[in-house]
Amino acid sequence: YGMTRDPELRLAAQSAVSFILGAQHPGRGGWRYVPGQESDTSVSGWQLMALKSARMADLDVPQEALERVSHWLDTARTADGSQYVYNPHASDSPAQRQGRLPSLAMTAEGLLMRFYLGWDGENPAVISGADYLVASLPQLGTPQMPLRDTYYWYYATQVMFQLQGDRWTAWNERIRP
User: Fold this and answer.
1) Predicted confidence band at 27 (pLDDT cuts at 50, 70, 90)?
2) Which of 8, 46, 71, 103 is most buried, by the most CB atoms less than 10 A from its CB?
């Protein structure tokens, strides 16, 4: 709908937005794989991207929903706000523990979400987080030891593009090939 503005698509697009809004966790502010149950940074990022697109298409997205996403990010960030975890509420078990630790992919996604919510490249947490990301520029590795992380690269490329400057140049030179 946002690309065509075809009036026949508006109701369906708004219905999809309404579903996303109804699936948001009322307290934690994010989304997970089952509507209204828990939150994680990964699923929340995809849902915020949809809501950002909906707003750009002039669909109804209440500000309160975006404020709840910001609350989720405040929960999923490190103390200085520069890095993000998958799920700080994950159980402290061997299978789930990794999700409680900051990662490159979740940091990239969290920073991009902050851009969507109005932060800019001058924010100290963005600068520190971007420096954390640029310290791990894309690498292909070898066929025996591949190092591709498409999820990380997808989000970090957008973060670096938003920042421009030396970080974008270094990132783009590595990702472009």
Assistant:
1) very high
2) 103
